Automatic annotation (TrEMBL):
Protein encoded by which gene: TBC1D10A
Gene Ontology molecular functions: GTPase activator activity; small GTPase binding
All copies of domain Rab-GAP TBC, residue ranges: 8-196
InterPro entries, sorted: Rab-GAP-TBC_dom, Rab-GAP_TBC_sf, Rab_GAP_TBC_domain
Organism of provenance: Chelydra serpentina
Gene3D superfamilies, A to Z: putative rabgap domain of human tbc1 domain family member 14 like domains, Ypt/Rab-GAP domain of gyp1p, domain 1, Ypt/Rab-GAP domain of gyp1p, domain 3
Protein name per its UniProtKB record: TBC1 domain family member 10A
């Protein structure tokens, strides 16, 4: 399975594979009917308003999300609103929207919801909390890794006083969904679901290391 993910999951199987790899399929089966209950609930007006304002910003040129009120935006709203009800202490974070949108490109809303739950709870725990403690900690870890494995990039960023949190929030919290070419996003996500969150800093290291190679 790992070798297949390294080569790239075939597009026709990617949605199903992500569900099994993430544990979203098991989560759905253990919580049969739960998404429907959350979907039918009105939701907290505070989060509903913020989510509605973010819908049109997610992949605005993709056929699923191009139309205001279209099925893509409707499903995205359903998934994000359901999550605020599922984890009211966490609520909604804007970085969850592009992640949920990528999931919806590959699977129906209910399956996408449980995969999102797995990403938030299993793969990137604490990333979407109000104070972003986990992402700040991982930022310091990334900077240390840069110093060791990509010293040229580390020296340049230190000289420019660019704190990791300034650039890595978009990368890490959105799982590179709005940063890399689309074909690369899908390959990164294949390995992300296969091997876990360790793949996120690896991609960041490769990006910075490659950017500062001589002649690039």
């Amino acid at each position: 399975i790992r070798l297949r993910c390294q080569k790239g999951i075939p597009p026709s199987l990617r949605g199903r594979a992500w569900q099994y790899l993430s544990g979203g399929k098991v989560k759905l089966e253990q919580n049969a009917g739960r998404f429907d209950e959350l979907d039918l609930s009105p939701g907290d007006p505070k989060w509903v308003d913020v989510i509605e304002r973010d819908l049109h910003r997610q992949f605005p040129f993709h056929e699923m999300f191009v139309s205001r009120g279209g099925h893509g935006q409707q499903d995205l709203f359903r998934v994000l609103k359901a999550y605020t009800l599922y984890r009211p202490e966490e609520g909604y974070c804007q970085a969850q929207a592009p992640v949920a949108a990528v999931l919806l490109m590959h699977m129906p809303a209910e399956q996408a919801f449980w995969c999102l739950v797995q990403i938030c709870e299993k793969y990137l725990p604490g990333y979407y909390s109000e104070k972003l403690e986990a992402i700040q900690l991982d930022g310091e870890i990334l900077f240390s890794l840069l110093q060791r494995f990509a010293p040229v990039a580390y020296k340049h960023l230190s000289k420019q006083k660019l704190d990791p949190i300034l650039y890595m929030t978009e990368w890490f919290m959105c799982a590179f969904s709005r940063t890399l070419p689309w074909s690369s996003v899908l390959r990164v996500w294949d390995m992300f679901f296969c091997e876990g969150s360790a793949w996120v800093p690896r991609v960041a290291l490769c990006s910075w290391g490659g950017a500062f190679q001589p002649g690039t």
